[in-house]
Fold:
Amino acid sequence: MLRLILALLCAGAALAATVRLYLKDGTYQLVREYKVVEDRLRYYSLERSEWEELPLNLVDLKRTEAEHAQRQEALRKEAEEVAAEEKLEREQRREADRIPPEAGVYFVAGQQLLSIKQAESKVVTNKGRSVLKILSPIPVVTGKATVELEGERSANLVASDRPEFYLRLASDERFGIIRMGAKKGARIVQRWTIIPITKELVEEQQDIETFRQQAGEGLYKIWPVQPLEPGEYAVVEYTLAKGNVQAWDFAWRPGAKP
Structure:
């Protein structure tokens, strides 16, 4: 980034030092600077690297000054944009540097960075329920199952309908934000269909479209593209068709204090 800024500054300096001196016949000369001296215009020619003069009545001074002012304003705005971009990148680096090295999900709340505890998921079938372990094998059952979290409401409240999270992955897996389904006494993370004989697992979940920004090795920042509707959500990490989903639950309830 620093090299880019230096290159832009050098290019800007070069452009700022180049002025198109327009003549009334429609042509122009590239000059470094110029000044009006009585009825003549004195200028430093970039082509010949020396001072020269022209009768002032041959120069389109109004057009020359107007274009030069426009170019100066464009360079000023470009410099401001570069400075703002660099400031944003510095702030993002400082924020990412605060994330602990341990795998998990961290919630950005203003100047605070809060760790969210991983929820304990349970696989529920018509034969009962079992605790879903990290990287656990697909249950040896057929038919339907759901991955659920105990309780109908999360204790982790966010203060915005576009919350920002950092996710540090333990391994290279899929991840995202989902909206959880409602069930009496529980929240549904995923619905599974387990195909007989092959034991193939088909997972269904309500994905939320997110922006993703890599902030380091195995570290990602994610946030919703659109404002969330009030409800129960989770940041999830999983391997497709492996039955090993991990969830970090949260809720967006307007007016509720985090």
In short: The chain is about 20% helix and 45% strand.
